[in-house]
Specification:
Number of strands: 15
Shape: rod-shaped
Order of helices and strands: HHEEEHEHHEEEEEEEEEEHE
Radius of gyration: 29 Å
Strand content: over 45%
Number of domains: 2
Mean pLDDT: 84
Largest sheet: 12 strands, antiparallel
Helix content: 10-25%
Number of helices: 6
Length: about 325
Amino acid sequence: MIVPTISALLLLGQLASAVPFSQVARGLPKDISHVALDEDNGQYLAYKNDGTLYGKYPVDVARDVDHEYKRDNGASCSKLKVEEVKQLPGYKLLEEYADNTWGKGSRNVVTNPDKADQRGREATACVSNDVAQVELSGTPICNKQKGQDNSNANGTKGTIEAMVQQGTSNTAQWTVTSGSSIGVSAKVSAQIGIPEVASVTTELTTSAEFTNEVANGFSTTSGSIVSHKATFEVQDGKQCHVEWVITSCNVSGRGRIRYLASGWVWFEYDDKVQDHYKWAVNIENTITNQDDRSSFLEFTGSITGESASNSSSVCV
């Protein structure tokens, strides 16, 4: 991804009157705290943290919002509802920002407005890019058993070929025990880190798809145990077969997945304040502590790790 230089950003500000806001929003400085909708002139006014005007941008009413939303956020985001944003630990910071900047007049709080001239200033609930690390609960319970090729080889000293099993696999079944308060009912995906299970499997990271609903079930899987042909020595005058060891371990685990709120929350006033009715506040810029704009999905489940190894010929 190309990161705009300072000079490029300044140029964007100077040429703002010719460039739709939707095209430059990704390049705006991080200290753009809020925007106003100037309905009379059909433009957005972008303001910095200190209240100074950064630039004016024409409203891009023809923008295909749904296409842009899917392209930008993929399968790991959903639109943030008003009732969800109000449950964020840091929601009061948004209210305080609006109170201190435009007053406590009669107003509505809105996210993802349908009006064409407000589209493009969405609020989203996205699964964090961080790997959700699973924590094991208790000690793995393991058992070993022998697998074998049932074909026997007689007598003459030499070699035999036999099918043996080898490899490791890790499978787990999970249940959502506590849903996130944002992104409710949305189907998303996340990266889940599963630790080593009793030296049978190694630490791994795998992906999973799930729905943010209590009692929803999902699974993860990685690796495989496969059969392959191997050659073994046969002792003269003896019956021989091939054996290998299968180790299976089971253990419970738990983890949690972070959902992050981002984007814009609208404060729509009944009367004009500072010449405008509608103002949008940037969530990330106002709620700077990530935990204050987060909610967590918690899950528990059972992990099974298996390995097949130590193939050898046994002669009697």
